[in-house]
Amino acid sequence: MVLAALMGGLFVFGAFAAQSTPPVPVPQVPAIPVPPPPSLNAKSWVLMDYATGRILASSNPDLRVQPASITKIMTAYVVSAELKAGRIHRSDMVYISDEAWKKGGAGTDGSTMFLKLHSKVSVENLLYGMLIDSGNDAAIALAQHTAGTTQGFVALMNAYAKRLGMTGTHYSDVNGYPVADHYSTARDTAVLTRAFIHDFPKTYKINSVGHFTWNGITQYNRNTLLWSDSSVDGVKTGHTEGAGYCLVASAVRDGQRLIAVDMGTPSAKARADDAEALLNYGFRFFKTHRLFKAGQVLASPRLWKGQADHLPIGLTTDLSLTVKRGNYDKLKASIDIPATLIAPFKKGQKIGTLTVSMNGKTLLTRPVVALSDAPEGGFFSRLWDTIMLWFYGGHGNKQTAVQPAAATRAAS
């Protein structure tokens, strides 16, 4: 296998250009010391990098807790998935059943959209009522419309949780009531939130809306960070006596998105303060760097028995990574590919693996693919390469040198 260096301190260009006078020494700016994360009031919390899903800081991230209305992020995720699949539509008019009205309506002591019994409301408006008003009646109505029954919808929620790798989560209802066997973790909540933002951005945008009026009643988004921090665009609050006050917040600053989850704080103010402290800490001491672009040629190893002599390889999507400020130059990247590549290959076919590491620890891996079709060569070309392979002994790519192609160093 081939291990070819791509990065790691090779970001200064023109360093050996001829100079008529000795260069003036440039004082070295010490790396920013990164302090420990802030002390928070939450039982468990997580700060996640949206670009890669890496946990930047955490406390008790896998503690199973009651998620309260944070549950509705998954409810919105399942509804959005069914909308994308075309099985339901935003314009569908949903019948407000006795169950939705009795368990989540105006007569309850929980959050409600104030839906009228036996009325019909569009899926679109119910999404607004659930995500902004945190309406339990809206969540139940959406669940019944999507899956026929709330029990059927809960089964979908658990299936999607398993698909997303939420190993510390189990749902028993659609809105976050404190019922038996209903729990999640801060880590799983961050995983779900990242998937929600990425997979269903249209629905996610509802979380940034400040207020919503229905049945003549205007309610304001309980995520107070929407007013105090212009970079925040979501996500969801939750509260029950057992769960405490919970908040999932996400913000974008200078193109960098972070997700903060704090579960089980003592007050609404504490949950907002905790989330804001996490976001400020993350943006101050971590930075997202785009390491490679989609389609960028990372290497062109020797290709045998093909119409071309070399095969350009790279990534199908941009590759970004968030690291502590001042640590960018410590990153190392390498490609692991077979020593012998024999045509044919199809564009997009996996060729090897790109690994990015720091101080010997792997931070992430990505598949490296063929960036173009590589058909077989003619008979005589293949015959000649067969002969040449006898001499090379199947190690044609072993010494392939790879340089970073247009890898731009972002300010650290």
Task: Supply database-style keywords.
412 residues; alpha+beta; five-stranded antiparallel sheet; 10 helices; 18 strands; disordered C terminus
Structure, explained:
It is a single chain. The chain has a 5-stranded antiparallel β-sheet with strand order 1-15-17-18-13, with no helix packed on it. It has a 5-stranded antiparallel β-sheet with strand order 3-2-10-9-8, sandwiched between helices. It has a two-stranded antiparallel sheet with strand order 4-5. It contains 10 helices and 18 strands. Helix content is 27%, strand content 25%. It is of the alpha+beta class. The longest helix has 18 residues. Helix 1 runs parallel beside helix 4, helix 1 packs parallel to helix 6 and helix 3 packs across helix 4.
